Amino acid sequence: MKPKIYSTYSIPVQVKDYMAQYCDIREWHGDGRTPRDILLEEIADVEGLYTGGSSMVGRIDEELLNHAPHLKVISNVSVGYNNFDVDAMTKRNVIGTNTPYVLDETVADLAFALILSTARRITELDRFVKEGSWKPTTNYREIYGKDVHSTTLGIIGMGRIGEAIARRAKFGFNMDVLYFNRNRKQAAEEKYGAEYCDLTSLLTRSDYIVLMTPLTPETFQIIGKEEFKLMKKSAVFINISRGQTVDEQALIHALQNGEIHGAGLDVFEKEPVDPTNPLLQMSNVVTVPHIGSATARTEAAMAMRAAENLVAVLTGKEPIDPVGK
Ligand code: DGY
């Protein structure tokens, strides 16, 4: 008998065909992801869980693990795995996996999409044109943006995605690249001339700041009131990591009080973001709904990688992308 697995969303067909050779699949066919209460019932007999971080699914924690006594592997279809309680999983010998590498370039593209659209006021001016405000009398000085090329970019978190951003910055936009990271990244320094600096120095010197660090206890609200105060008044702040790496109230305060110029946000403290969140009312803030890796090609590659990880564990092999401490 094949091991049973549950997926919190409907798996792309090709990926499902591959997985079906090795396991019996049950999946959620409703909107979004499986709601938590249903998930807790569905996992009672499964050995594998195929999922991703989402507010509907909730955390992979003691409560969830208590409902899944046969679980061997949880395969996250995402690179971030802050939704895992790794300690609780380790205690029960449940292996967690993620999907690195395959999304690096796509997320780096989004970093630049947010940099450019915030700097050049693309979403604001798109509305301006579409609502008929562009007139022969339009005062262009009022719609000037900021240059991106030949400025300084600060990257907080120089992992693989950070490096892909640095490459675009250096060769596409002739930017000087500063970075802050747990450890020095020789390759980024040699290839992109990236300069390693402490956080204070990065924040004070950068024109654009991209936060790209995983969410861990060390990076929780790594950017808060004091950090925004250090930034240039002309600085643009981009977050494509996780909402909790920023003190969102401090970000709102910094934007409302002109401490920084603008922000581009893919992630929020609470997702989906509350429609009354003041960030959504600000014309100098560009927002997207956590779409870092959301292109058809990359999502398909992530789905397949997650499937390979899951199948590896269920067939007694080492997964390609185990996560842990
Ligand atoms: C991930 O995979 O963790 C990212 O949030 C993708 O957007």
Automatic annotation (TrEMBL):
Domain of life of the organism encoding this protein: Bacteria
Enzyme Commission number(s): 1.1.1.215
GO molecular function terms noted in the UniProt entry: gluconate 2-dehydrogenase activity
D-isomer specific 2-hydroxyacid dehydrogenase catalytic domain location: 24-323
InterPro entries: D-isomer_2-hydroxyacid_DH, D-isomer_2_OHA_DH_cat_dom, D-isomer_DH_CS1, D-isomer_DH_NAD-bd, NAD(P)-bd_dom_sf
Enzyme class: oxidoreductase
Keyword vocabulary terms for this entry: Oxidoreductase
Domain D-isomer specific 2-hydroxyacid dehydrogenase NAD-binding, residue spans: 112-292
Record bears the keyword Oxidoreductase: yes
Similarity section: Belongs to the D-isomer specific 2-hydroxyacid dehydrogenase family.
PANTHER family the record matches: 2-HYDROXYACID DEHYDROGENASE-RELATED (PTHR10996), GLYOXYLATE_HYDROXYPYRUVATE REDUCTASE B (PTHR10996:SF283)
Protein name: Gluconate 2-dehydrogenase
